[in-house]
Amino acid sequence: MVGDMRLTVEDAEKQGLLGKVRVKVDGQYVKHVTIADEEQGYVECFKYRDGKVVINYDLEEAEREIIKGHVQIEIDGDTNETTETQTALTSAEET
What we know:
Elements: E1 6-8, H1 9-14, E2 21-25, E3 28-30, E4 33-37, E5 42-46, E6 48-49, E7 52-53, E8 55-56, E9 61-62, E10 64-68, E11 71-75
Antiparallel strand pairs: 1-4, 2-3, 2-11, 4-5, 5-10, 6-7, 8-9
């Protein structure tokens, strides 16, 4: 996993990485991430208010927000020292 990477919750699940990935944007960890893209510099994550997921009842789904900046993805157990990482995708059980 060298270079810029894009990772979704679905990708992490397929690759057995749930619970092993953390994400940073501009050096700050971000939780509840559904998409992290190092090359394009953004994450998509669930929107929270007062500690609860914001629900759009008209669309019957959780609202999401986009955060732009310098994105770093960290995968626990990744021994490739050239991969710059630091990230936090959450499992579907946590969301």
